[in-house]
Amino acid sequence: MSLVLAHGGIPGLIGETGSVFIALAVFGYFIRRSAKKEREREDDQKP
Amino acid sequence: MSWILAHGIGGIRDLPVPREYFYYGAAIVLVISFVALAFLWRKPVLERRRDGRPLPAGLQRFLLSIPLAVVVGALSVAAFVFLWLGALLGKNDSGVNFTPTFVYVYFWIFMPILVVLLGNVWSVLSPWRAAARGLGWTLGRLGLWHGAPFEYPQWLGRWPAAVLLLSFVTMELTYTNPSDPHALALAIAIYSAVTWAGAIAYGSQAWFENGDGFSVDFALLSRISWFGRRDDGTLVTRTPFSGLSVTDWTPGMIAMVAVMLGSTFFDGFSRTSIWQNRYYNVQVDLIDRPSLADLVGQLMNLGGLLVCVVFVGLAFRLAVAGTESIADRRPLSQEFIDSLIPIAFVYIIAHYFSLLLYQGEVGVKLLSDPWGRGWDLFGTHGFQPNFTFLTPHMIWYVQVGALVIGHIVGLAVAHDRAVGLFHSPRMALWTQYPMLVLMVLFTVGGLWVLSQG
Description:
A: mainly alpha, B: mainly alpha, 19 helices, 3 strands
């Protein structure tokens, strides 16, 4: 319980872990978008 | 079973900086390594170095000679029988019986180090394999054995090995008294029966390459080594870690590696105050019913072990799903699973090296009286172990160093695969972001567990 309390209780814990997941999701979205463009560019370059 | 607690670091208290700084520091080191890999490591190097350089012909002939295999195998089987009889007939006290120390320290901790240093020597040292080969050869000469009746099914892959290894760690980590010599004798008998039944059914080679838990575990760890063996049997020296550059399509690989990693992780977690408090609360609540308390305690441990194993497997699968999604290419699990093997090895070092050193000393004393009968076979019975040469801080710094180095190697192995798979360096970099998140998670999680022990 002390671990949970140290992170601001259940809401704090959800906020902390949630913000990490949201940050990862946003980062992942942009990486996927860039990767898709890179693949399309590679496909265009193929004879 | 007081000795089994010896590998706890006894609580780190007075570190020069708060322990959270170690978590942040380790994560930053991993991120910096990741960036450095992206700029400095642009072509795959491990795969083309895997074949290595053959050992000198004379040494090769000696190491692969049948007389050597027969002598080593016979000694191994003799030691196995002696230790098993010691557990069965010797004094039923792990403080004086040598077998528990041998199994949990010399075998379970030292053998991984040995295979990483010298290559897969377990394939020659394994008493189960030596006995199966010896018996098969003898029965064949007598005309009583004409080969295994069944072909090893491909779909079974390494699943039997994962299950057998899980059964061993279940005994070690969930049973109330895992170092009880009689219980250990029974466990060894059951494991041996299953192993030999598998060897009889599918043939010794197929079984020990795929189905036997310890053989597969040590074979995977030996991929780290600078000594290896080509597919044609040639013994070689090679670049360390180049053995990890294989695409292993064998089913059950993720399960196997998850058991290797998850079991060590649970061993650490089960020593944290979070787990211990819950465990002892249950024991106190059931103090009037000791049998039920034992059962509930074991079920708690079993549940915790399985959760850790499943967590490792799922975390890896999730990271690879991220990689597959970025690359729009699947399946990729088999390409990257080997990057977890160095981590499994450093978890062993980080969690158990103090146990190896401390209880290894006790083993010197027990070796002279392995059955606890008052013998002094080697004159070491009076040996006094020194339990003070490692301070908690020394142990902690070794643990931090081992975990960080192991995860950097894991990142490098995965990066090497990625630059080989994807032609564009940018694509290779992007596909490795999920692996970086996974490595940071495992590093910080591992450090947190160790610091709470």
